[in-house]
Amino acid sequence: MKPKVSVFIAMSLDGFMARTDGSIDWLDKANLKVHEGEDFGYNIFLESVDALILGRNTYEAILKFDLWPYKEKRVIVLTTSKIKIPFNLANTVTASKESPQDILKHLSDEGIKHVYIDGGITIQRFLSLGLIDELTITIIPLLIGEGKRLFGSIPTDITLTHSKTTIYDFGYVQLKYFI
Ligand SMILES: NC(=O)c1ccc[n+]([C@@H]2O[C@H](COP(=O)([O-])OP(=O)(O)OC[C@H]3O[C@@H](n4cnc5c(N)ncnc54)[C@H](OP(=O)(O)O)[C@@H]3O)[C@@H](O)[C@H]2O)c1
Q: Which atom of ligand 1 is nearest to the CA of 100?
């Protein structure tokens, strides 16, 4: 059976998930207003996933963090290039240029039940192929004007079923949908 595939991402109100150069300085700045300890349900979500599929750009951005956030979870980096995998991640991180369908098939064969997809281009590819089951989008009340869009062209309309809206008192709105 295909694993459940989820997205959990922050987006500016005008639809961007990163600036054109990939930076998320706008998100880091907005997060300065967030109450200490508020994680928007991210840690519970992360605990619920067995594996992650990251686009190469997202992987490279996360490698620059002080701490690798995915602990011992299996991470597959989608890329057609040769990527560096640090020694301390060699047991959990692998690179792949397989199609999304083939990767999910292999993960299913390994007993993986829930996969977290991250990266704009990567999310768009999986959405276009009808492979995403759940979307959690935290809308940041900020317009950045241009950048990398979370959503792009799709071969056919996608109808979503609303599951939950959470409104935070500092202005963030989190939307959860099933597809
Ligand atoms: N707002 C948020 O919450 C949030 C979350 C995550 C990331 N970000 C930001 O978003 C930026 C990254 O997003 P992005 O849209 O640039 O891209 P991305 O999806 O992270 O990475 C795109 C790259 O992934 C590889 N790829 C994707 N699908 C593939 C496939 N089926 N087969 C082979 N390779 C595949 C390709 O790499 P190659 O070119 O190597 O082939 C492609 O160029 C980062 O700067 C990050 O900081 C923001």
A: 31
**Residue 34 Cα, ligand 1 centroid: separation in angstroms?**
26
Average pLDDT over residues 80-106: 97
For ligand 1, say whether the CB of 129 is within 6 Å of any of its atoms.
no
Cut 0.90: pTM above it: yes
Ligand 1 neighbour 15 (Cβ under 6 A): no
Q: Which ranges of 82-177 would DSSP assign to H, the alpha helix?
A: 100-109, 120-128
Long-range contacts, stretch 87-90, CB < 8 angstroms, 24+ apart: none
How confident is the model over 103-131, as a mean pLDDT?
A: 97
Instruction: Please give the domain boundaries of the chain with CATH numbers for all domains.
Output: 4-178 (3.40.430.10)
pLDDT of residue 14: 98
Give the nearest ligand 1 atom to 11 CA.
1
| Ligand 1 in reach of 147 Cβ (< 6 A) | no
Burial class (CB in 10 A: 0-12, 13-18, 19+), 120: buried
